[in-house]
Amino acid sequence: MRAGTGAEHPTAAPDGGSAEPGPLSYDGLVQQVRAAELGPDPRTLRIAVAFTTSQAVRHDGRRGGYRNEVLSLRLDRAVGSCAVEPGALPAGAVDDCAGADVARLLEHPLPAVRVAALDAYLMHVRPHTPENGALPRPLPAGSSLEKSRARARAVAGLLDLAPGRTVLVVGVVNSLLEALRARGLAYIPCDLKGGTTEWGEHVVTDALAALDRCDAVLASGMTLGNGTFEPLREHALRTGRQLVMFAQTGSAVLPRFLGSGVSAVCAEPYPFFWLDGGPGTVHRYGRTGAAL
Questions:
Q1: Which of 47, 87, 119, 195 holds its CA 20 to 30 A away from the CA of 288?
Q2: Beta strands at 78-84 and 216-220: parallel, antiparallel or unpaired
Q3: Contact of 216 with 92, CB cutoff 8 Å
Q4: Is 16 in a helix, a strand, or coil?
Q5: CB of 93 within 8 A of CB of 209?
Q6: Angle between helical axes of 174-182 and 144-156 (0-180°, round to 10)
Q7: 232 with 6: CB under 8 angstroms?
Q8: Beta partners for 78?
Q9: What is the CA radius of gyration of the chain?
Q10: Which 3 state secondary structure label does DSSP give 241?
Q11: Residue 288 neighbours by CB under 8 Å, 6+ apart
């Protein structure tokens, strides 16, 4: 799973009320955290544990495989994460994070560290709970492929589109494409690596060039780490089209943009579905009438 290319209006809260306005931009959110406007001063909070999780996947019945690597930072009970290209983190990056205060890591030269630190802070001050707007969706126990498909259905259900519409999928996940096909939706797969999907479909590499050909965008949280989230968010604001995010990277970050370009979020904090065969949970934001 990899990603290609991410203002302010109130949005309906799950209880029918009005949620707080989102920040004007990703940089605006970071500034709010630095200024301690959303919680404790980040200079007073230290990361206790920093670690990476690396996986190689080849599901039964699928002709291809892939690799994932994720940087995670532990702040008290919270864990913030950012996916990276396998092997991209330099030696010493994890050691550099352990024991550092969040404010320093928000200014770290590595984008993945900055995103993981922001995610950990926001998970700490606003965890995924119904009180904070999250609607839990259980994932059943099963094989890695079964759980991947269950998560894909949870994500695809957040799109409010009729059959025949076209979705730009930024960050190719074959189970997600499969779920869109089951709903009768067309899609344009986009990923920085290019290549082809499980069904031999061409994967484009420039998400922005494909935006005008689509009715909605479904994008991975990895767009936060590679700096391409803001153009997608700004496009959604300009056009009024849906932008639905599925997020292991920045799962606590992206709900902050509901009503600010982001329509809905399927948030999946660490530990991710592919780490355990038992039951799990994802947290959905933004559409109370989403398909089950």
A1: 119
A2: unpaired
A3: no
A4: coil
A5: no
A6: 50
A7: yes
A8: 75
A9: 18
A10: coil
A11: 12, 14, 135
Provide the H-helix boundaries in the chain: 26-34, 93-97, 102-105, 111-125, 144-156, 174-182, 207-210, 222-225, 229-239
- Taking the C-alpha atoms of residue 147 and residue 79, their distance in angstroms, rounded to an integer, is 21
Tokens of 114: 């900055």
Amino acid (one-letter) located at 22: G
What is the per-residue pLDDT for 8? 32
From first to last of its 292 residues, the chain has per-residue pLDDT tens of 444 433 333 333 333 333 444 447 999 999 999 999 999 999 999 999 999 999 887 766 666 666 789 999 999 999 999 999 888 899 899 999 999 999 999 999 999 999 999 999 999 999 999 999 999 999 999 998 999 999 999 999 999 999 999 999 999 999 999 999 999 999 999 998 899 998 999 999 999 999 999 999 999 999 999 999 999 999 999 999 999 999 999 999 999 999 999 999 999 999 999 899 999 999 999 975 555 4
Q: What is the pLDDT of residue 22?
A: 43
Beta strands 216-220; 280-285: pairing state: unpaired
The total of other beta-carbon atoms located within 10 Å of residue 53's CB is 17
- The reported pTM is 0.89
Cβ atoms of 241 and 235 within 8 Å: the answer is yes
173's tokens: 């996940």
Pairwise CA distance, residues 168 & 212, whole Å: 10
Q: Which amino acid is at 124?
A: H
Based on the number of CB atoms within 10 Å of its own CB, is 22 exposed (0-12), middle (13-18) or buried (19 or more)?
A: buried
DSSP-derived secondary structure letter, 251: T
